[in-house]
Design a protein that fits this description.
Number of strands: 4
CATH superfamily of the largest domain: Outer membrane efflux proteins (OEP)
CATH topology of the largest domain: Outer membrane efflux proteins (OEP)
Strand content: 5-15%
Distance between the termini: 66 Å
Order of helices and strands: HHHHEHEHHHHEEHH
Strand order of the largest sheet: 1-2-3-4
Helix content: 55-70%
């Protein structure tokens, strides 16, 4: 009998050790040599967001959003979920001890094996009771021996996923700050566009009055009056689209701040004079430390590798100890007598023998997830470097574009006055006046849009460098 047991145990162990071969992937950590070149290590991401964004109205909005934003609050509770998962995993490799009690009574059927004994009791009442009771109380314990470190590895994986969730929330904080800042600057730009439109409406009204006077003096025809009036109506129509954009942008900021629709306090004056400082990107390799999404991908990859180890141990036999101690008797009055004390201790080993398809599938899936995590880690690094390079280039190019566009606006603004004087003196026709006004308006609108893109590039480079969360 003992020989048969060891033969069976050897079969279980032998069959369990045959693990299918799967393909795994090691992440590619190589980067171009110039990514680690010696350069200025000053990094804008090291600045607190209150230092990077100095507008007091914007700071107040971001403060409110970091407290009330629903996505951030959801992320906080997801962190708690993963924290509880660590506790659950830790408890799996500790002994389980339970206390319990049972109380019951049983009447055995006449024509059963136990029923025959009951008939004997009936024939001799002094032998025992007619109804057999079952009263038990005791402590029961079980403990899975973590021979292959399966349970401890699962706990380490849970810890890494907990840390990954924290990094995910940090990245969400960065994105919320960037999204609010970008929307705030967009709101300032819309306010300035509205101001420009209103200023041009007044200019065009004056031009229309001037043309009407010229018509009364028989210097121009009704066609000129109609063209000037049509341009005025076109400009007036622009303000309604801008007003709708203002409403939507305010509501987007309110949503991110966790508030219902209300006016967003802001300082729109001096928007075009806002100075965009030179942004220091630091050493490119600092991205690996600053970007929460890269660290999140790295932690997910590490957890996925541990999950492969956990899935691999399912092919091995598991060992469990179980024990119990307590009192039992057929009468509650006898339960706590010394004669009613009992205990048991057992050990078992269980391993997969036949039909291991489920275990194989779980193992292959764990490997596939590890490969996906490796690609995701590589993609997050590549994406981060591309974003930084793009946004640094945007800041530089939009700075030059704004300087050029400012000169264009200045020249066209002077041209409006010149064209009006020439028109009055009949040295220019009304088409030249209309074109000059249209070109000047378009140039001023483009100037505002260029300043907005410049400020949004400043926001995006801060996000790309991984600032805001710390």
């Amino acid at each position: 009998m003992k020989y048969n047991f060891w033969v069976l145990f050897a079969l279980i162990v032998f069959s369990a050790c045959k693990i299918p071969v799967v393909v795994s992937k090691q992440e590619n950590k190589t980067t171009p040599a110039y990514y680690s070149a010696v350069q200025d290590s000053t990094n804008a991401a090291s600045l607190k967001w209150r230092q990077y964004f100095t507008d007091p109205f914007l700071i107040a909005i971001i403060d409110t959003a970091l407290k009330n934003n629903q996505e951030l609050n959801i992320a906080l509770h997801e962190i708690e979920l993963d924290k509880n998962e660590i506790q659950a995993r830790k408890g799996e490799y500790l002994p389980f001890v339970n206390a319990g009690g049972v109380a019951g009574i049983e009447k055995t059927g006449r024509y059963t094996f136990d029923g025959i004994s009951e008939e004997d009791i009936k024939a001799n009442p002094e032998k025992g009771p007619k109804h057999i009771g079952d009263f038990r109380i005791g402590v029961y314990a079980s403990w899975e021996l973590d021979v292959w470190k399966k349970l401890r590895t699962a706990k380490k994986s849970a810890v890494l996923r907990y840390l990954s969730t924290i990094e995910g929330r940090n990245f969400m904080v960065t994105n919320v700050i960037a999204e609010i800042s970008g929307s705030y600057y967009e709101l300032l730009a819309l306010d300035n566009l509205m101001l420009i439109i209103q200023q041009n409406i007044e200019l065009q009204k004056n031009a229309l009055r001037m043309v009407k006077l010229e018509k009364d003096a028989a210097k121009v025809s009704q066609l000129a009056v109609n063209r000037f009036e049509a341009q005025l109506l076109h400009t007036q129509n622009l303000q309604y689209d801008i007003q709708q954009q203002i409403v939507e942008t305010e509501n987007r900021i309110n949503f991110l701040s966790g508030k219902f629709t209300q006016h967003v306090a802001r300082a729109s004056a001096g928007f075009t004079e806002t100075i965009v400082d030179i942004v220091q990107s630091g050493i490119p390799s600092q991205l690996l430390l600053n970007r929460p999404d890269i660290r999140q991908a790295e932690l997910d990859l590490a957890a996925a590798k541990l999950d492969v180890q956990v899935a691999r141990t399912n092919f091995y036999p598991s060992f469990r100890l179980s024990a119990g101690a307590g009192f039992t008797a057929f009468n509650p009055g006898f339960v706590f007598r010394p004669e009613s004390f009992l205990y048991n201790l057992a050990g078992d080993a269980i391993g997969p023998l036949i039909n291991k398809n489920g275990i194989k599938a779980a193992y292959k899936n764990a490997n596939e997830k590890q490969i996906i995590s490796a690609y995701n880690y590589e993609r997050s690094i590549l994406s981060a470097f591309v974003e930084v390079v793009n946004h640094l280039s945007l800041i530089d190019n939009y700075k030059k574009s704004y300087e050029t566009k400012s000169k264009e606006v200045e020249i066209l603004t002077q041209s409006i006055d010149i064209s009006n004087k020439l028109f009055v003196s009949t040295k220019a026709d009304y088409i030249e006046v209309l074109l000059t006004q249209r070109e000047a308006l378009d140039a001023r609108i483009e100037l505002i849009e260029t300043k907005l893109k410049q400020l949004q590039a400043k926001v995006n480079i801060y996000r790309a460098l991984g600032g805001g969360w710390n």
